[in-house]
Amino acid sequence: MLQNREARRLTKCTKMEAIKTDILIIGAGPVGLFAAFEANVIGLMCQIVDSLDRIGGQCIELYPDKPIYDIPAIPSCTARELVDRLMEQIRPFDVPIHLSQRVSKVEQRDDHRWTVITEQGMTFDIAAILIAAGNGSFVPQRLQVPEAAALEGNAVHYSVTRLAEFEGRDIVIAGGGNSALDWALALKNVAKTLTLVHRRAGFSADANSVAAMKCAVEAGEMRFVMGIIDSLDAHDNALHTLRIKQIDGTTDIAADKVIVLYGLVADLGPIATWDLDVRGGRIEVDTSNYESSRPGIFAVGDIANYPNKQKLILSGFHEASLALRKAFSYAYPDKKRTHIHSSYDAKLAERVQASADHS
Questions:
Q1: 142-262: what fold?
Q2: The pTM is what?
């Protein structure tokens, strides 16, 4: 996959000195990726940050294999294929993409440039900000039982980062989507015991994953219990059993690790504190250039709001194109930008060809 081939350009939780560039794009979904292409086409240097640990944004997190029919000139493609194609489109520009980086602080300096700091310690020195964060940062849906919060990071997990942490453990995985089933299939080979818990017999996962899970259950490699987690039995900061509420009663399951994969929910997060005009969780913008109420900060894609707003990927592409042309004036206030159609852009053609020759 292109995403794997481009891994050299992606960084995770990297700490470094302030990075100076023209535009910081917040969001590595389809609109953010296309914005990176457009920025380079008009002569702007850019970098991308995303709070998630992989590119693709909402498309990849919520519907990676769902067909999309309204991308111009592409009759049909999955969200995963669209992201791959967008990555291929920006490959000639070698755009740095910093993953697992949630922007927490935004300050405008006396020189009118911006200092942007992430929760993980990265700092950017930029001329303008383009927010392409979809519906905001995605955060995991928490386990809603009183005992869960105190056990987070120790016995209660919302992701898997190191397989070794779960080796030889009694594991319960809660959820019925692709992530839940995929991790159940991956961890059954390292766990002492593994139980998948889901509220119903149907799953919102790929048919192949469901079939593989059912085969593993039949083979005795894992267990499936239909119900919901009702309570956790823990003491001395250690989990011992879970109580599962079922239609006909309750079941106790021995477990010292529970992985909750109920999916992700959108959270505007720190963006809500940036003194922007935010209404209903979306940023109000001027449709002539998609600039927010703070000059130098732009919003495009689903997070942008204006009269007759259409939440379409193709709308986000258009919004990013206009926003970046206004952003150019902040990066180069004394330079006049000359419009060139891509068909006549010799430098662009040269870079694309060079990238194709090296792929």
A1: FAD/NAD(P)-binding domain (3.50.50)
A2: 0.69
Compute the distance between CA of residue 58 and CA of residue 264 in angstroms, rounded to an integer. 9
* Residue type (1 letter), 35: A
The CA-to-CA distance between both ends of the chain, in Å, stands at: 13
pLDDT confidence of residue 9: 52
Residue 273, CB-side half-sphere exposure with 13 Å CA sphere = 8
In this structure, are strands 103-108 and 114-118 parallel, antiparallel, or unpaired? antiparallel
Provide block-wise average pLDDT over 10 residues at a time, the chain (359 residues). 45 67 96 97 96 86 82 93 96 95 94 95 97 80 91 90 90 94 94 96 91 97 97 91 94 95 80 91 95 97 95 96 97 89 84 78
pLDDT of residue 64: 79
The token pair at 334 is 């004394």
For residue 2, what pLDDT is reported?
Answer: 45
Q: CB within 8 A of 333, min separation 6: which ones? A: none
User: What residue ranges of the chain are covered by domains with CATH 3.50.50.60?
Assistant: 2-139+265-358, 142-262
CB atoms within 10 A of CB 165: 11
- Look at residue 161 in the predicted model and tell me its pLDDT: 75
Taking CA atoms, 315 is separated from 70, 169, 203, 303, 342, in Å, by 11, 48, 32, 12, 20
Based on its alpha-carbon atoms, the radius of gyration of the chain, rounded to whole angstroms, reads 23
CA angle 131, 293, 23 (to 5 degrees): 35
d(CA 112, CA 110): 5
The three-class DSSP label of residue 48 is strand
Distance CA 163, CA 185 (A): 12
The answer for residues whose C-beta is within 8 angstroms of residue 154's C-beta and 6 or more apart is 237, 238
Locus of tokens 């209660």: 156
Beta bridge pairs of residue 35: none
Nearest to 42 by CA among 349, 352, 337, 267: 337
Residue 137, pLDDT score: 65
Burial classification of residue 354, based on how many CB atoms lie within 10 Å of its CB (0-12 exposed, 13-18 middle, 19 or more buried): exposed
How confident is the model at residue 338, as a pLDDT? 81
CATH of domain 2-139+265-358: 3.50.50.60
